[in-house]
UniProtKB/TrEMBL annotation:
Annotated keywords: Chitin-binding, Disulfide bond, Glycoprotein, Repeat, Signal
One Gene Ontology term of the molecular function aspect: chitin binding
Record protein name field: Putative peritrophic matrix protein 1-a isoform x1
UniProt-listed SUPFAM superfamilies: Invertebrate chitin-binding proteins
Residue span, Chitin-binding type-2 domain: 23-80, 130-186
GO cellular component, one term: extracellular region
Bilayer-spanning residue ranges: none
InterPro entries (alphabetical): Chitin-bd_dom, Chitin-bd_dom_sf, Chitin_bind-dev_reg
């Protein structure tokens, strides 16, 4: 398994409103890896070491960030849809005037501004038992109840992954492995 430290950080930045070019995605990459296009759900970038090759999914498919492959849109999450939306509301209190025959006083309150930021995420809300993802790097953890599944943490984002049929997650080698090589206590 290769590391995607720089490229993944750039992709996360892009998903959160930063600007990134396709040529920057593969900076620091070693080996061959697929990365989502930061602006196009149908596109992805194949990094061969530090060389980027833009690709497009077949018609009707999008690049799924959970499995890093093209997949059907109704069961996929694409990077451009992981947007940050910011809503700003400003409250201006009403002006009050009090008066008597001798003088008039006008009081106006200072407007207040409230900013709310909402971040859409790929994973649903998680139970407490699931791992907390570190903000940096790529990390793997065993699933809390299913030995055929595991968690992939990519720069603070938790993804639930599944091993191919008849294989189980082996935390020692951080890879799916044959059942007889895995000490599984959950299945």
């Amino acid at each position: 398994m290769g590391s995607c430290k720089v490229a993944c950080l750039l992709l996360i930045t892009a998903g959160l409103g930063g600007v990134i070019s396709q040529s920057q995605i593969c900076v620091g990459n070693v080996g061959v890896h697929n990365f989502p296009d930061p602006v196009n759900c149908n596109g992805y970038i194949v990094c061969v070491d530090e060389t980027s090759i833009p690709m497009t999914c077949n018609e009707g498919l999008i690049f799924d960030v959970n499995i890093l492959k093209c997949n059907y849109p109704d069961i996929s999450v694409c990077l451009p849809n992981l947007l940050v939306t910011t809503t700003t509301t400003q409250t201006v209190p009403s002006t009050t005037t009090t008066g008597t025959t001798a003088s008039t006083t006008t009081t106006q309150a200072v407007p207040s501004t409230t900013t709310t930021t909402t971040i859409a995420t790929a994973a649903p809300s998680r139970p407490i038992e699931e791992p907390t993802c570190p903000d940096r790097g790529l990390h793997f953890y065993p699933h809390i109840s299913d030995c055929q599944r595991y968690y992939k943490c990519l720069y603070g984002k938790l993804y639930v992954m599944s091993c191919p049929l008849s294989l189980l997650w082996n935390q020692d080698i951080k890879f799916c492995d044959f059942r007889w090589n895995v000490a599984c206590r959950n299945n």
